[in-house]
Every structure is written in C-alpha cells, then in structure tokens.
Amino acid sequence: MANDNRSSLEVFKQVVRHGITLVSIDYRLNSEAAYPAQIYDVKGAVRFIRAHAKEYSIDPNRIAVSGTSASAHLALLLATTNNNPAYEGTVGGNTQYSSAVSAVVDYYGPTDLLTMAPEMSASLQSATDAAKTHDAPDANESILLGFDKPGQGIGVLRKLYETHNTQSPNWSYVELALQGSPVYQVTPKTPPMFIAHGGRDTLVPIAQSYRLRDALIANGVENLFVSNSEAPHGNQGQLVNETMIKWIADKLNAPQSNK
Fold first, then answer.
1. Cβ contact 66:105 at 8 Å
2. SS3 of 87, please?
3. CA-to-CA distance for 50 and 60, rounded, in angstroms?
4. Is 203 inside a domain boundary?
5. Within this chain, do residues 173 and 75 fall inside the same structural domain, yes or no?
6. Predicted confidence pLDDT, tens digits, the chain (259 residues)
7. Who has the most CB within 10 Å: 77, 187, 221, 250?
8. What is the DSSP letter of 124?
9. Which domain holds residue 231?
10. What contacts 165, CB < 8 A, 6 or more positions away?
C-alpha cells in the first residue's frame, strides 16, 4: 500500500471536500482526569454540536465521529453507548439534546482495556515488554482508571476478572474497566463502523479490532474492517485513507467528489 505521512487530522480533513463539516473535539487526558471524565467530555461536545447545528449549518441527524488510538477508543465508546444515560454525564450542559452519532471511523483504537498485553502478538513484542507497556501501574490504561499506585495496575485487575473475585476491594475498578471497554457495549443498535488497524502495530494489538469486528458481526452491525498488513501504530497508507473517506461520505450521504 502507498505511504501517506500526513497527520490524522489532515487525513480526516479530507471530508470537507465532500461537503462535510469537520469539528475537532478536545477532552481531558488521563494525566488530567480519570475515566469516566473523557467520555463525559466527548458526549458533551456532541450535544453542543447538535444544540448549535443550525448556527453552524450542520444536519443534526447526520453526525459521525472518528479518532485514532486513544481518541478512537473514545469514539467507539461514544457510539456503542448511544442513548445510554449511564455514560452521558452533564459536562457542557445541553442535556436536552442527544449525543448519539450515526457512524464511526476507528483507526487502531483500544477496545478492551483489560486485555491489551496478552493480546499483543509475540512476533511483534515480547510478553514482558507488553506487560510493562499495558499492565504496570504507570501504563496508560492504569492511569486512565486511576488504578496506578504501587502494587496496582491493569495486570492486577485482569487477574481479578479472570478469577471473578467480586469480593476484592478493587472489584469496582474491574467494573470500571469493563464499562470503559467498547467491545462489551456493542448492541444491535450500534451505528455502522469503519475499522482500520495495521498488522505491525506494537502499541494496540490488532486482536483488539478483530474482537470488535466479531462483536459487530454477532450483533448484525454493518462494518468495514481494513488492514494494511505492514502498517504500524500510526500511518495506515493512502489506500486505507481513501477507502475511509469514501465510506464516511457514503454513510453521511454526502456528494461524491472526483478531486
């Protein structure tokens, strides 16, 4: 596949030529706040867009969401929890408006916070390195959940989950991890998804996207999974990007462009 070194924002900005308005959403990082602050932020942003749709000449019935890596994780969680009040929050107000979206573009987003390390291919990264990246107290997933003190970490939570140790004082963190994992939130009402994941991703295992795809299929949800077998965690190549733009333009019924 051809190389494409543009940033993800530059890639997503291509939708503009199809008559689609692009909005870049900011949210609190795990260094600023623990989950679920992040999903509250993005839900609040979508409600704001819908509340001001007329002002910005946006069709409130045709809103899609996209992201790469951590932001793709939030895009997936946003979409799989459409109209689920447990995930809504009140950030930004406009609570009389829906935060639902009608399509999703996911570039190599995490889908299960508990299983990143064991799902990493041994041909790409050793189990020791994968555990250090994903299971340790200073791993991004551990920090996101606020379970990042010495002796804590995702690895501890996964063992509790595997043994179903609901009596542990840390079980609430296991539940938080499950609630924050999009693969467990898929329902037949989940909107269509475009999934792109490189075969040489050494940060987010491609198995995470395979599992999401399988959950979507099991629930009868339309999806398109595209993989550049040589792509890393990042640039997916021109062909993948062009396929994504055509897919999202079609899902939003935007006019096609030959440019």
1. yes
2. helix
3. 5
4. yes
5. no
6. 233 445 777 888 888 888 888 888 999 999 999 999 999 999 999 999 999 999 999 999 999 999 999 999 999 999 999 999 999 999 999 999 999 999 999 999 999 999 999 999 999 999 999 999 999 999 999 999 999 999 999 999 999 999 999 999 999 999 999 999 999 999 999 999 999 999 999 999 999 999 999 999 999 999 999 999 999 999 999 999 999 999 999 999 865 544 4
7. 77
8. T
9. 4-112+183-253
10. 159, 171
